[in-house]
Design brief:
This protein has two domains: 2-123, no CATH class; 146-291, no CATH class. It contains nine helices and no strands. It has helices spanning 2-17, 55-74, 85-102, 109-123, 152-169, 177-208, 233-249, 253-281, 283-291. Residues 134-141 have low confidence and may be disordered.
């Protein structure tokens, strides 16, 4: 359930942020509601960034985005007091609902729906920070990078959404019909290969009853199945799915953001995992590393 809240809060922040990064005329959509020539129903509100007298619009968008992101952080970090969490969500929802009502159109339906669901969950007390405890390392676990409190699959999602945002802001298009066709074919092939690889690798960990959380202590060294060919088949599978979706959508910027994501995983996440594995399995893991590469 915490990941449903995570997605809703992230979407709320992104929708609000689009007032500062409006799409070009004709390119806005349900997931990128603000466009450069958007007009509010009340003139004094102004408009998105780039239009005159836009102080009201940008103030509401800024408040909503800030409180959404703070509430999102509260799901993972104890630095945000749990008693503040419902208030953070309510303030973010009120600010963003005011914003979307002022620009009421078909493009605002999804953002409004996201806000209504969040408000319902908080007001009915079905969703609270107490019932969605932060993922923190247990016992005497090593100190971890703050970003590692966010599970790696969701880091892939965030990186892709960041790439989509850049695609709206600075569109890089592929005009060649042949290139578009090749991209779609390659995209399908990568997704068909990536999905079973990622889920098979996860299933092996589940059957072995060992953790998939990078900073937690593993109970078993997994070296069979796809782990005979790569030490991180889950990450490889997710990367294949990521590139496949970008290929189907003919999106270039998400591929660029993937490069930064791979650097983060390779330099931050995997070293922590390997440190824990060496600590638990010693020479057995060292021997495995000499036989199988980190990626491919």
């Amino acid at each position: 359930m915490r990941w449903l809240i995570f997605i809703l809060l992230l979407l709320g922040a992104i929708f609000s942020l689009t007032a500062f990064m409006p799409a070009t005329a004709g390119s806005a959509g349900l997931l990128w509601p603000f466009v450069v020539n958007a007009k509010p129903i009340i003139d004094f509100v102004g408009g998105p960034l780039g239009q005159s007298n836009s102080i009201v619009t940008l103030s509401l968008a800024g408040i909503a985005c800030l409180f959404f992101l703070t509430a999102l952080a509260g799901l993972f970090w104890e630095a945000i007091p749990t008693k503040w969490w419902p208030t953070l969500v309510i303030v973010a929802v009120i600010a963003s609902l005011l914003l979307y009502v002022l620009y009421l159109s078909n493009r605002m339906l999804v953002p409004i729906l996201v806000n209504v669901v969040l408000l319902w969950g908080v007001l009915t007390k079905r969703w609270t920070a107490e019932s969605l405890p932060a993922r923190m390392p247990s016992g005497n676990a090593v100190r971890i990078h703050p970003l590692m409190n966010i599970p790696v699959p969701w880091v892939y999602v965030i990186a892709y959404l960041a790439g989509v945002g850049l695609q709206y802001l600075m569109s890089l298009t592929i005009s060649s019909p042949n290139a578009l066709l090749i991209g779609k074919i390659v995209g399908v092939v990568l997704i068909v290969g990536g999905v079973p690889l990622a889920f098979l690798s996860l299933g092996i960990f589940r059957r072995a009853r060992t953790t998939t959380v990078p900073f937690e202590k593993p109970s078993k060294l997994v070296t069979w199945g796809p782990y005979r060919f790569t030490r991180n088949p889950m990450y490889v599978g997710l990367a294949l799915i990521y590139v496949g979706v970008a290929g189907l959508q003919a999106q270039i910027w998400p591929i660029m953001s993937l490069l930064l994501l791979i650097i983060y995983i390779d330099r931050v996440v995997i070293p922590v995992e390997e440190s824990r594995l060496r600590e638990v399995f010693g020479k057995d893991y060292e021997r495995y590393c000499t036989q199988v590469r980190r990626w491919i």
